[in-house]
Amino acid sequence: TLMAAQMTNAHRRFLQVLMSNGITEGSQARKLHQHCCETDKVYYAHDKLDDFISTINSHLQPLFMQIRKGISEDDGRAHYAVVNLAETEVTKMASDYTEIELELFRKTMDLIILSENGFASSTDILNLADQLKTKKMKKKEAEQVLKVFVEDKWLSEKNGEYTLHTRCIIEMEQYILSNYQDVARKCNICHSLAIQSQVCESCGIGMHLPCVRKYFRAQTEPRCPKCNEFWSCDIP
């Protein structure tokens, strides 16, 4: 087998920043790549970020870790996060949150994933707070906990509506696909997990909103990429 490429200080520095950020947007990752290479005086090629990351991943493999690329469901931009492959969502978050906070998160996740549009309203989430099995939570407390989940980039909030943050989707893709098998689907275009998506009424495939936009821009009329039936949702 080929020997894995040497991990340089530039690779180590890149990995450290990624881990401390939790998640890094694509353009930031490209700047960081350049900065790490130039600081370490190693060869830098602007179009070689994926190769640079593969080298790091080959060294992370024995540690059951990986840098993964995901797409923001909001604007379709690439993001990178370090994922621990040996842990499920619950163990990953268990060190940072109490049992009752985790229960609220799981129930919020249920609402979001089972919803039509990939969002749950703060009213619906706060109504769950006094139905928790661990112990009841006051609405004020629940509001604080939701705020922390947003700050820690597990949830995103817009006008009182919550959805899963890109970081959460990248890190928990496998967990969500195996725990919500009946409803969780991958985007037919980019093949990553789609929480906010449009669904074909005929064959049931789903597509991220940015992927819908991009795909239908090139089509004369919107037809499903799988069954070719007319796409009945409004193109965003």
TrEMBL record:
Tell me which domain of life the UniProt entry assigns to the organism this sequence originates from.
Eukaryota
Task: Describe the family membership recorded for this protein in Swiss-Prot or TrEMBL.
Answer: Belongs to the NSE1 family.
Q: Mostly located where?
A: nucleus
Q: What is one Pfam family matched by this protein? A: zf-RING-like
Reaction(s) catalysed by this chain's protein = S-ubiquitinyl-[E2 ubiquitin-conjugating enzyme]-L-cysteine + [acceptor protein]-L-lysine = [E2 ubiquitin-conjugating enzyme]-L-cysteine + N(6)-ubiquitinyl-[acceptor protein]-L-lysine
RING-type domain residues are: 187-228
Q: What is its EC number?
A: 2.3.2.27
Q: How does it assemble?
A: Component of the Smc5-Smc6 complex.
PROSITE patterns reported in the protein's UniProt record: ZF_RING_2 (PS50089)
Q: What does the UniProt entry say about where the protein is found? A: Chromosome, Telomere; Nucleus
Question: What GO CC annotations are associated with the protein?
Answer: chromosome, telomeric region; nucleus; Smc5-Smc6 complex
Role, per record: RING-type zinc finger-containing E3 ubiquitin ligase that assembles with melanoma antigen protein (MAGE) to catalyze the direct transfer of ubiquitin from E2 ubiquitin-conjugating enzyme to a specific substrate. Involved in maintenance of genome integrity, DNA damage response and DNA repair.
Top-tier EC class: transferase
| Key words, A-Z | Chromosome, DNA damage, DNA recombination, DNA repair, Metal-binding, Nucleus, Telomere, Transferase, Ubl conjugation pathway, Zinc, Zinc-finger
In alphabetical order, the GO MF annotations are: ubiquitin protein ligase activity; zinc ion binding
One annotated GO biological process: double-strand break repair via homologous recombination
* Protein name (Swiss-Prot/TrEMBL): Non-structural maintenance of chromosomes element 1 homolog
Query: Which species is this record about?
Result: Eulacestoma nigropectus (wattled ploughbill)
